[in-house]
């Protein structure tokens, strides 16, 4: 499949083609969907490790004396509380509290932050940040075009990075952290082939893993070095399909499915990221875009709730399928919600789904059904995440 006129390619495009990847348009980019099989790539990440190209993600650098205060104003999180070389999951919301995008913010140095946005929303996020920057001494720069982002995810990920040739610790840029001590949702500077790279212990699979920002001209070298280092650990390249099934098992939201401009963080069960309590050094409340609407939303009963569903049969639910009351036979009952994401779980062996339902049927253990092409397939409400990685 060739790229459409509007589909951009990452610095690793030729590597994907050489590996036989099936390519697909995604968020304005042409990305690898799979290399071998969805199941094999998913299981590799759960059992050993998978290698992902995430270079399509937006990356907006925020610098200046007011960088932390600006991000406190622009985002729902308390970003000024993020320690240096730390990271924080957050969201950018509209004035009405609806979610424009979910993000990860990295505090790389004093007055220097990176805001990592979903590919399809990167231009929107940059525009929103530019509008919200009035009155703040900050500089915003889209640094995505000059970088690549490569992720190693899975229980052998740390061993693979330690074994990767030319990827080295450097005390001058490490933020005072040794790689062996790098915590979850933290980052550090390293060097690859003499160039500075940023390594974050973050990811979107529910496994341990690392995401590495590297200059675009070094992307192919790093990709190949990771594959070579990972061969003894059964590392495999993995595409978007495996990434989606992995994040679903981990109960992680996908923008355009669980999150969109009709949803606030509270409906999505992510109210914890909204810091209505953030205050300045003198104790004054910090106003931020969407604060009033989000405070009102928190205080009001929800019209719908995001829940996990476990299938009791074999037929999977898919996005946009109606969630219905379970009747006596196979006929669907009254509609009480909508599936946002659904698939068979390769790890658990049964269908799983995320769905918005009315509060009355959102309690754990509630027996429901999903209308799968006119037939009511039995599902039950369960906690999310569906899968948690084993703790050593």
From TrEMBL:
Protein name (record): Aminomethyltransferase
UniProt binding sites for substrate: 211
Species in which this protein is naturally found: Promicromonospora thailandica
Family of this protein: Belongs to the GcvT family.
Lineage, uppermost ranks: Bacteria, Bacillati, Actinomycetota, Actinomycetes, Micrococcales
Class of the enzyme per the UniProt entry, highest EC level: transferase
Domain of life: Bacteria
Documented EC number(s): 2.1.2.10
Keywords, in A-Z order: Aminotransferase, Transferase
GO CC terms: cytosol; glycine cleavage complex
HAMAP family noted in UniProt: GcvT
Described purpose of this protein according to its UniProt entry: The glycine cleavage system catalyzes the degradation of glycine.
Keyword Transmembrane: no
Molecular-function GO term, any one: aminomethyltransferase activity
Catalytic activity field: N(6)-[(R)-S(8)-aminomethyldihydrolipoyl]-L-lysyl-[protein] + (6S)-5,6,7,8-tetrahydrofolate = N(6)-[(R)-dihydrolipoyl]-L-lysyl-[protein] + (6R)-5,10-methylene-5,6,7,8-tetrahydrofolate + NH4(+)
Record domain Aminomethyltransferase C-terminal: where: 304-387
tRNA-binding is among the record's keywords: no
InterPro entries with a match to the protein in the record: GcvT, GcvT/YgfZ/DmdA, GcvT/YgfZ_C, GcvT_bac, GcvT_C, GCVT_N, TrmE/GcvT-like
Quaternary structure note: The glycine cleavage system is composed of four proteins: P, T, L and H.
Gene3D superfamilies named among the record's database cross-references: Aminomethyltransferase beta-barrel domains (3.30.70.1400), Aminomethyltransferase fragment (4.10.1250.10), Probable tRNA modification gtpase trme, domain 1 (3.30.1360.120)
Gene Ontology biological-process annotations: glycine decarboxylation via glycine cleavage system
Gene name linked to the record: gcvT
Domain GCVT N-terminal positions: 12-278
């Amino acid at each position: 499949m060739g790229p459409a006129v509007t589909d951009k390619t990452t610095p690793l495009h030729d590597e994907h083609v050489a590996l036989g990847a099936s390519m697909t348009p995604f968020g304005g980019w042409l990305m690898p969907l799979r290399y071998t099989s969805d199941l094999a790539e998913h299981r590799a990440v759960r059992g050993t490790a998978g290698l992902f190209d995430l270079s399509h993600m937006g990356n907006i650098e925020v610098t200046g004396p007011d960088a932390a205060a600006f991000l406190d104003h622009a985002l729902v999180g308390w970003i000024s509380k993020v320690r240096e070389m730390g990271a924080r999951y957050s969201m950018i919301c509209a004035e009405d509290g609806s979610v424009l995008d979910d993000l990860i913010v990295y505090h790389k140095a004093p007055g220097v932050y990176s805001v990592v946005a979903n590919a399809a929303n990167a231009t929107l996020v940059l525009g929103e940040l530019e509008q919200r920057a009035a009155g703040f001494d900050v500089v915003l720069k889209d640094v995505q075009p000059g970088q690549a982002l490569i992720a190693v995810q899975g229980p052998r990920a740390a061993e693979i990075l330690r074994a990767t040739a030319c990827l080295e610790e450097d005390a001058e840029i490490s933020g005072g952290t040794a790689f062996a001590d790098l915590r979850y949702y933290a980052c550090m500077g390293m060097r690859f082939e003499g160039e500075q790279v940023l390594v974050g212990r973050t990811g979107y699979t529910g496994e341990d893993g690392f995401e590495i920002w590297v200059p675009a001209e070094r992307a192919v070298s790093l990709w190949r070095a990771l594959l070579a280092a990972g061969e003894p650990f059964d590392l495999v390249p993995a595409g978007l399909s495996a990434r989606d099934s992995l994040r679903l098992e981990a109960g992680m939201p996908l923008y355009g499915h669980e999150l969109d401009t009709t949803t606030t963080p509270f409906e999505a069960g992510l109210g914890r990221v909204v810091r209505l309590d953030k205050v300045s050094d003198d104790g004054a409340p910090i106003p931020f875009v969407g604060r009033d609407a989000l405070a009102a939303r928190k205080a009001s009963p929800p019209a719908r709730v995001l829940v996990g569903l476990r299938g009791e049969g074999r037929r999977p639910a898919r996005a946009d399928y109606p969630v219905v009351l379970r009747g006596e036979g196979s006929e669907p009952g009254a509609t009480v919600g909508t599936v946002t994401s659904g698939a068979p779980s390769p790890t658990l062996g049964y269908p799983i789904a995320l769905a918005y339902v009315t509060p009355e049927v959102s309690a754990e253990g509630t027996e429901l059904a999903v209308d799968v092409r006119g037939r009511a397939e039995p599902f039950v409400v369960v906690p999310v995440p569906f899968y948690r990685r084993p703790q050593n």
